[in-house]
Specification:
By secondary structure, this protein is α/β, with parallel strands linked by helices. The protein has one domain: NAD(P)-binding Rossmann-like Domain (Rossmann fold). It is built from seven helices and seven strands, in the order E-H-E-H-E-H-E-H-E-H-E-H-H-E. It has a seven-stranded parallel β-sheet with strand order 3-2-1-4-5-6-7, with helices on both faces. Strand 4, helix 4 and strand 5 form a beta-alpha-beta unit. Helix 4 packs parallel to helix 5. The model has no long low-confidence stretch (mean pLDDT about 95). The structure holds NADP nicotinamide-adenine-dinucleotide phosphate (NAP). NADP nicotinamide-adenine-dinucleotide phosphate binds next to helix 1, helix 4 and helix 6.
């Protein structure tokens, strides 16, 4: 690995389970300091206990902009800096467009799109002051392509993720000339509780799912590049 993660401070949203938890474990192995963010205190506490003293957790609903601002201030006060932001938190819903209740459509956008933007805009002034940093958005293949005839349908989820792709690309341009990297990863299906949590009856071993640990390793690789190299957009798919 090129980047030394020792004493780097990483904020990971959605760190209580799934992909976010795996990223946290890998970064902790590299001696990074971690701010684990999600809504469930119990699950966060378990991850913190698994990782040890280099991790702290912060209970926050990222769809609440005021709560996000407060949480980022707390994280900054606790650690004194933020080097890496991983916008990973997300939720799922699927079905015909007209079967999506308006509250669900709003929730998808509130968490996936607005949550990502709120966390990023709260962290950005800190990164700018430090004049360095990395922002990595966990998007989805659903942020760059529509599901096709075999998968889905999940058009509101796709719409929310496409918006995150737009934000990611546009922010990368906005920050050109600074030392703040903005990256997007676009994974296909992974073996996480995402679908079950949303009430859909998938196992964690469907043949279209990648191992979340493999995707976490790829994220670590993206974050490990030399200062003058960026893997800014990376699509990762199941190969079979
Ligand atoms: N699994 C896949 O097939 C797949 C494929 C492509 C992309 N992705 C993306 O990968 C990311 C990680 O998802 P996952 O698959 O690991 O799912 P997961 O296991 O369900 O994890 C989702 C995480 O997001 C957190 N979260 C949800 N709503 C939140 C909110 N309002 N505020 C703060 N945290 C919130 C959850 O914690 P709490 O419930 O404790 O808040 C949890 O830690 C998501 O952005 C997802 O869209 C997943």
């Amino acid at each position: 690995m090129n980047m030394d993660f020792q004493n780097k401070v990483a904020v990971i949203t959605g760190a209580s389970r799934g992909l976010g938890k795996e990223i946290a474990i890998l970064l902790a192995e590299q001696k990074a300091k971690l701010a684990l963010v999600s809504r469930s205190e119990n699950e966060l506490n378990k991850v913190k206990e698994e990782i040890g003293p280099n991790a702290e957790y912060f209970v926050c609903d990222i769809s609440n902009s005021k709560a996000v601002e407060k949480t980022i201030v707390e994280i900054h006060q606790k650690f004194g800096k933020i080097d890496i932001l991983i916008n990973n938190a997300g939720i799922w819903f699927e079905g015909l467009a007209e079967k999506h209740p308006p509250e669900k459509v709003k929730e998808l956008f509130d968490v996936i799109t607005l949550g990502t933007i709120y966390v990023t805009t709260s962290v950005l002034p800190i990164l700018k002051k430090q004049a360095e940093g990395q922002i990595l958005n966990v998007v989805s293949v659903a942020g760059i392509e529509t599901p096709g005839a075999e998968m889905g349908p999940y058009s509101p989820y796709t719409a929310a993720k496409y918006a995150v792709t737009g934000f990611t690309k546009s922010l990368e341009e906005e920050l050109k000339g600074t030392k703040i990297k903005v990256m997007g990863i676009y994974p296909g299906g992974m073996n996480t509780p995402l679908f079950k949590k949303a009430g859909f009856d998938y196992t964690e071993n469907e043949n279209w799912m990648m191992d979340k640990k493999d995707v976490a390793k790829i994220i670590l690789f993206m974050l490990s590049q030399p200062k003058d190299v960026i893997i800014d957009h990376l699509v990762v798919r199941k190969f079979s």
